[in-house]
Amino acid sequence: MRPIKKNGVRIDDSFAEAFPMRGTAILITAPSRRWARQAAATMTGFATSVIGCGAEAGIDCERTGKSTPDGRPGVRVLVFSMSTDTLQTQLVNRVGQCVLTSPGSACFADLDGADRLPVGDSIRYFGDGWQVSKKFGERHFWRIPVMDGEFLCEATTGLTKKAVGGGNLLVMGATAKTTMRAAELAVTAMNGVEGVILPFPGGIVRSGSKVGSKYKAMMASTNDTYCPTLRGAVATSLDKDVGCVLEIVIDGLTEEAVAAAMRVGLAAIVKLGSEHGAVRVGAGNYGGKLGPFHFHLKDLLP
Amino acid sequence: MKPLVFILKREPDQRLDLAPLVPHLLDGKSVKDIASLELQITRETITVGDIFKLRSGATGSIRFEGGSARLDNVGLGLKAGEIIIEGDCGKSLGRSMSGGNVVVTGDCGPFAGSAMSGGRLEIAGDAGGFLGAPLEGEMEGMTGGLLIVRGSAGERAGDRLRRGTIVIEGSAGDYPGSRMIAGTLIVLGECGSLPGYLMRRGTIALANPPELAPTFVDCGLHDLAFASVFSGLLRPESRGAARLFSRTLVRFAGDMAALGKGEVFFPA
Asked: Which of A24, A195, A282, B188 has a beta carbon 3.0–4.6 Å from A12's, enabling a disulfide?
């Protein structure tokens, strides 16, 4: 595979292999931007990977009071899971423990569609009989009395079965510092794309995994071919000038959104160039047999 | 889409039942078929052709040019489509409608929107008593949709309201929201005595509340997210209602003589 070179950055002739997921979106509002962010951050904590967290969740974007149903600042949160049942459980648990509890919060549906997931319809029982149902047109809300007033929560939110999880970029640089600079710029650019989240800490994962392990109990283990300290010891995927690899993982509500995020991420890395940033960009896949979505890097280049 | 037009020739000399003149019953009928439909409620036969001049058009959009307080059951059981009445109409306007849009430019009689379950009913003038209410012996009044009165409404507006929203921009007679089961009733003008009498659940919002019954209890001043949301949802339909819900509101719970899970809001 002869790599394409852009601004000194080698782009692998490879592709990111992604999987179908179930996804949903809600909008959390609060009396101030600070508390809307707080509720969203708490709700999307411990949600990096479905392997150990049950769901992958993150903040999609922020909205000003002009574009929220109650005129207060809001944050859009996306949640993804492998099955509708798990997504349902995760959504209700997370809204119930993290949004209901957050001062001044309200929670609205933020995804259209015929398939619905109950949110307020489940959380209303917290009201112990004092909950109030309010319908207007097609919209249905629950008002639950709480100690600072009321928690307003839309009865259901939309569910998409066309969500895509596991889009990714492998950012490879000479040192931890230059690699991080490239990865951070890519994350900043990708956060501007609507309909996607980067579920890992700050959008970046340093412990990419492979399927399987020498230990029976482990489903996944360290991706040794991309570990720079093992470069001489294993059948490595790394070149001599690569001393650090960081991965950016993307989940999106649609295939197009994931592609768009990867495109702006790649563009940011290429724009920075190899001298101060990454020397090479790759993508993780399993040979193309496991996931139906293939995002070829060469198709996404600026 | 060109509407099907009924032009009133003269004031009818008996009350007429206009229940057959809704889109789903007229669909597929020719103008001649429609003209021969009987509307009388006495022994004296009166057909559509006797009282209206017809101009053909799509049955999904019906227009009455000229109205009368003797035209009853206009838009009865409407499922979809639109009915516009330029003038007044009689009792049970839009009763049991489940969808579509009805607009009356004049006044209407009692039981407008009675037991309606969906759609939108707008009365530009005044409405009679028992707006959205059930008829004698029925258990529930309005169970869905939006009912707007730009003028005033008579007594017992929203009686046994179960779901949906009623906005009265003018004044309301005595006992608005009596026996309410749930739903939302908004009165922007003056309000008659004892609002929410024996209400179980539901929301009544009054811009000018009278003295409430002693069975309503003070729950204090609140700025609720729900009120802001309703303010936004109501803005395209009624700016006055939107303004009312954007203010800090006093909440009274009641009627404690019944279930007591209802509420009356008014500005602080």
From this structure: A282
- The pLDDT, as a whole number, for residue B252 is 98
- For residue A138, the distance in angstroms to the closest alpha carbon of chain B comes to 9
Domains and CATH numbers, chain A: 4-18+164-299 (3.30.70.520), 21-160 (3.30.70.520)
Distance CA A111, CA A157 (A): 6
Query: Quick one: how far is CA A30 from the chain centroid?
Result: 22
Distances from the Cα of B219 to the Cαs of A143, A149, B244, B264, in angstroms?
16, 11, 18, 10
CB contact under 8 A, B225 and A135: no
**What is B137-157 written as a DSSP string?**
T-S-S-EEEEEEESS-B-TTT
Best mutation target, A136, A148, A154, to test chain B (most B CBs within 10 A): A136
* ipTM of the complex, rounded to two decimals: 0.93
Answer whether A252's CB lies under 8 Å from A195's CB: yes
- CA–CA distance from A204 to each of A200, A222, A226, A297, B142 (Å)? 5, 16, 15, 18, 55
Choose among A152, A147, A125: nearest CA to A136. A152
User: How remote is the C-alpha of A160 from its chain's centroid?
Assistant: 15
Q: Which of residues A114 and A288 earns the better pLDDT score? A: A114
Sequential DSSP letters for A177-210: HHHHHHHHHHHHHHHTSTTEE--SGGGEES--EE
Where do the structural domains in chain B lie, given as residue ranges? 71-267
Q: Which residue of B148, B185, B186, B229 is the best one to mutate when testing the A interface, meaning the one whose CB has the most A CBs within 10 A?
A: B229
All residues of chain A having their beta carbon less than 8 Å from the beta carbon of residue B263 are: 132
Give chain B's mean pLDDT: 97
Tokens of B118: 């969906």
Rounded distance, CA A208 to CA A223, Å?
Answer: 6
- The torsion angles phi and psi of B132, rounded to 5 degrees, stand at 70, 5
As a whole number, mean pLDDT of residues A282-289 equals: 88
**Would you say residue A1 has pLDDT above 70?**
no
Q: How many residues does chain A have?
A: 302
d(CA B6, CA B138): 32
Distance between CA atoms of B156 and B177, rounded to whole angstroms?
Answer: 6
Intra-chain end-to-end CA distance of chain A, in Å: 20
Please tell me the predicted confidence (pLDDT) of residue A288. 83
Taking alpha carbons only, the member of B12, B20, B139 closest to residue B78 is B20
* Full DSSP string of A52-117: HHS-EEEEEEEE-GGGSTTSS-EEEEEEEESSHHHHHHHHHHHIIIIITTSTT-EEEE---SSSEE
CB contact residues (below 8 A), chain B span 225-244, against chain A: 225-226, 228-234
> DSSP H helical segments within chain B, as ranges?
23-26, 31-35, 48-51, 225-234, 239-245
- The string over B34-52, giving b where at least 16 C-beta atoms fall within 10 Å of a residue's C-beta and e elsewhere, is bbeeebbeeeeebebebbb
Chain B CB contacts of A136 below 8 Å = 165, 184, 230, 233-234
